[in-house]
Amino acid sequence: MDAVIASLPEYWDGFLRTLYLSVISGIIALIVGTLLAAMRVSPVAALRGFSMFYVEVARNTPLTIIFFFAAIVLPRLGVKFEQFEVAAIIALSSYTAAFIAEAVRSGVNSVPVGQAEAARSVGMTFTQVLGFIVLPQAVRTVVPPLINILIALVKNSSVAGAFFVLELFGYGRQLSNDYGNQVLWILLGVAFFYLLITVPLGLLAHFVERKVAIAR
Amino acid sequence: MTSVLYDVPGPKARLYSLIGSAAGVLIILGILAIAVITLAQQGIFDADRWEIFYGPMAPDVWNLIGQGIVSTLTAAAVAAVIAFPLGIALCLLRISLIPWIRIPTQVVLEFLRGMPVVLMMLFVLLVFATGQFQAVVVGLVLYNAAIFAEILRAGIQSLPKGQREAGLAIGLRSFQSRMSIEFPQAVRRMLPSLVAQLVVLLKDTSLGYIVGYEELLRKIQIMADFLGPDFLFPAFFVGAAIYILINLTVSRIAIMIERRGSKKAAGGMAPPSVRTGLVAGGNDPIAKDSVEGPNKA
């Protein structure tokens, strides 16, 4: 127990870095994912094909492989990062974007056909239909799964700990080396900090789900 | 293709779309070309870099890769076989009528689902001082059993109330009704989600790399370390391709099962609203193909 208290500063540092990784990658993934989803439903075949290919490949690639590529293979190919955080953010956001794209797309598909037809019949263009009519309604269906994706993102950020980033999991590994006899408490401490992020997010997802639930 | 979002394109729009497609293809090709040129400058495409896969070293290299694949698949298979019954047991406890069984189970499930899988693997490895294989399997089992339990619970709750009432009315005990009436239907209804979770499980075996289990990725790295940095990219490329191919195959099978199942399942498949977002903490929060909305164009 005292090992945990003694290493509270490390925990705090790791906690903040986990949050940092999750927030930055989350924002990038949301933007890229929405773009991918827009490409997926667009009238231009090449964009549709590209988006479909990207989502399919990214969703079927283990995150560890993407991390391995970003943190170990890329530097070998001459792409140098100042910090390994950058590699972690690239890996996390490119992986998560695929899931977000799928969630947004399914949300778009859940909007009744009549909505878009009505919008088209008053003369709106594709971008207008998407931006003013469909996406605002799709958001309601999309938000709960999106929160779940973000929870998964927080947990996935732990993989960064194995690729030279000292976030919660990274510190957990380091501290369990330093305090070999108190591994149990050290790792339970790490678990506690993860739950500190994931459990409130889970409750939020549950709450939002009930709040925005609409009968169609 | 028609869509909700735009009318069937006329000749003008088709022309624009064609131009757009051409531009899109050009941009994508351009990015690819830049990547290929960068790689070529590193000498990636020199034949001697790839010699390991067909030269004199090839048998050893493929042997190593084969071992990696076997370890990956073994861990996934063992974990899946243990996790499923455990998931059923957890689900039974979770929907138990007795509060002091139900509530602690709920807490445990939330705990397991809110935790990174790799942390559980490390925990097992260090605290129980097991081997890497056991650590990987136990980590995967704990996490996926919790997810299976949640999927099955959602499946049971999506059944019409009358199913259970009828079971109880013909004199089955609560447990008997659960096992012989509700579970078979729940499993069928949730089959797509369950198989999608199996894909996640397979993907997560790669986390074994982090705790030192010698699965495919670790073997690749060992190989690259042994052969020298020049071979890192070719080795990685082949390894990643194998991983993605295996996963894509399993995903395809999942989709096939869903197509077959939706014709056969008793009450039909659960509606997407029951299934999406189910795998709350999962790496794959959206089950394959279950994401299609009811108004799919």
From TrEMBL, chain A:
Similarity comment: family membership: Belongs to the binding-protein-dependent transport system permease family. HisMQ subfamily.
Species lineage, top-down?
Bacteria, Bacillati, Actinomycetota, Actinomycetes, Micrococcales
Q: Which UniProt key words apply to this protein?
A: Amino-acid transport, Cell membrane, Membrane, Transmembrane, Transmembrane helix, Transport
Q: Where in the cell is it found?
A: Cell membrane
Question: Which residues are in the ABC transmembrane type-1 domain?
Answer: 15-205
What are the recorded Gene Ontology BP terms?
A: amino acid transport
Q: Under what name is this protein listed?
A: Amino acid ABC transporter permease
Transmembrane domains' residue ranges: 19-41, 61-79, 86-106, 118-135, 147-171, 183-208
Q: Which PROSITE patterns match?
A: ABC_TM1
Q: Name one GO molecular function term.
A: transmembrane transporter activity
Asked if Amino-acid biosynthesis is a keyword of the record, the answer is no
